[in-house]
Structure formats: structure tokens, C-alpha cells
Amino acid sequence: MDFSWFRDLGNLAQTGNFSQAAELGNISQPAFSRRIKAIEGWVGATLVDRSKHPVGLTSAGVQMLEAGQQALTRLETERNQIREAQSLPDNYVVTFGAQHSIGWRFYPAWLQAFEEAYGPIISRLRADDLPACLKDLRDGELDFVIAYDSAFARSIDGEPGVESVKIGQDTLIPVCKCGANGAPMFEFSANTSVEIPYLQFGENAPIGHHIAPLLKSHDLSGKLRVVYENSMAGALRIRAREGTGVAWLPRSLVAPDLEAGLLAQTGDPTWEIELQIRLHRLRGNANQLTRKIWAFLSVREPVPLVTKL
User: Fold this and answer.
1) Mean pLDDT value across the chain
2) In terms of domains, do 163 and 283 share one?
């Protein structure tokens, strides 16, 4: 059995002419005819209807060509992956990019849980703003990007060739400093008549895109007074702990502060914003290791919200 016979059969089906098919295969017509006879002898059936002009495949020929092409595709894919694996160094570093608020607490816990289930990998995290992470993903400098999604905003929308899988969840909650009695310093509600100081994510911070639609839907423009703006969740966290105002921050980030009484959640649960944490990749930018990681995560349950480390 010679798998090149299936290429010959395909060329003949494409051209309907022995001479033209032989030229496509870069062999002489007599040699080409002998190879077609050889595959027919191996199958034990006539695969080419020579009574027609142009010639065509019999039903048996169509069946064998389809099976042969599928086998060739599978074999070539496996060969390429084997060659790729042999060329991939044992110390390949899997690179992740993540928004700062994800990299602070969720990512270390997620990576530990992932390695316990999958096995150890050598990895590196680049914590940056989302647009920079996406640029690095497109440029091939990152294997994966981790970002938030919510009902209000998609982290990566309309990026060609980008696909994602859910790996965790979190919640954006309004928090502020605790008062002397342990209650929130600022009691937040839609019906409040008191203007509340607001610690706001910068206009270009993607995490703020999950918050703005909620505030707009409740028409809070006249009730929140922006007193500080920063694109970094960590910076807003510090200002909230100082008592400067109210900020919407990931629960995983502020969990230690809530437990220690440094911050308190204000407002009722309707002000919470559920977040999905999703892993993104550029489909065409993958190697054997990153494909295996992707396949593993595609069937794995997302990591629960981590509130303690």
C-alpha cells in the first residue's frame, strides 16, 4: 500500500484525464496508469470508469478516495505534531497575560489548581492593561490572555481568530471603609439623598466597562461624585481603605480586607456584578503544549471564586 496512490486518484478525479493527472503528480503517464492499476488491485475493485470522457471515478472509487484523503489528513497532522513536539524545547515557557486585578489574587490560585490537575508547567505572567495584552497576543508574545466578561461588557469582542473558555468567576462589589461601628462609612443605595464620593476606574480601563452600564441604568449620575480616578484596581483599593469613597472592586481582590474589617461591602446585592474569568487564545498561534492545555481546560470545570489565600 502506497498512500501516494490516493493523491493520484484525487488528481484523476480533479482533471478527468490521465495525462493531466500525471502532470499534476510530476510523473509520466505510463507510470501514473500503473499506479492507478495498483490501487485498484489492492482494493480489488474498479475505481475508475474509463468508458467516459472525461474519465470519472466509480462509486467504489469515490468511497476509497474519501477514505484515503481523510487518512492522509490525519497522518500529516500527526506527523506535523510529532515534528513540532521534537522541536519544542523541554523548558518552553507558557506565557499568560492578565489584567492587574486578575493577576493579583485569582491567577496564583488558579495556576496552582490547574497544575495540581494537569501537571506542572513552566509559566510566566505579564500583568498589564487589556489592550496591551491583546496586542502581545496578536504579536505572538503571549500564549493566553485572561480577562473579565460580564452581562454588561465583553472583554474581547470581534477579535478575528480569538476564542475563549471560562476558567473562573468573580464578582464586582461596592466597598468602602468601615465606620467606627463596623458598618460601611458610606451607605449606598439608589434612593440616597446624600451625594456619595466615588472612586472610579479610568475611562480606558476595560474593567470600568462592566460598571458604567449598571450605574447608568439606575441614573446615578447625580448621586455619585467622582473624587478619584485610576485604571488600577489596587490603587482604588488603597483609596477605599483610606475612607476616600466607594469603589466597585473584585471580591477576590478585597476578600482579605473584608475579613479584617478594613473594608465593608455597601449596598444590597442588586449592586453586585457577576464576572466570568475567561482564558483567550489566538487560534492560529499555538503549539502542541498550548493545544494540550487548551483541550484540558475546555472540559474542566471553572475554578471557584477564591476568597482566601
Assistant:
1) 86
2) yes
C-alpha cell recorded at residue 65: 478516495
Over residues 56-81, the pLDDT tens digits come to 999 999 999 888 888 888 887 777 76
Chain-centroid distance of CA 40 in Å reads 47
Do 66 and 78 share a structural domain? Answer: yes
pLDDT for position 145: 94
What's the whole-number mean pLDDT along residues 143-172?
Answer: 85
Q: Are residues 197 and 264 located together in one domain of the fold?
A: yes
Nearest to 96 by CA among 132, 129, 133, 148: 133
- Distance, CA of 62 to CA of 13 (rounded, Å): 9
CATH number of the CATH domain containing 162: 3.40.190.10
Q: Which domain holds residue 137?
A: 93-168+279-299
Question: In a 10 Å sphere around its CB, with 0-12 CB exposed, 13-18 middle and 19+ buried, how is residue 187 labelled?
Answer: middle
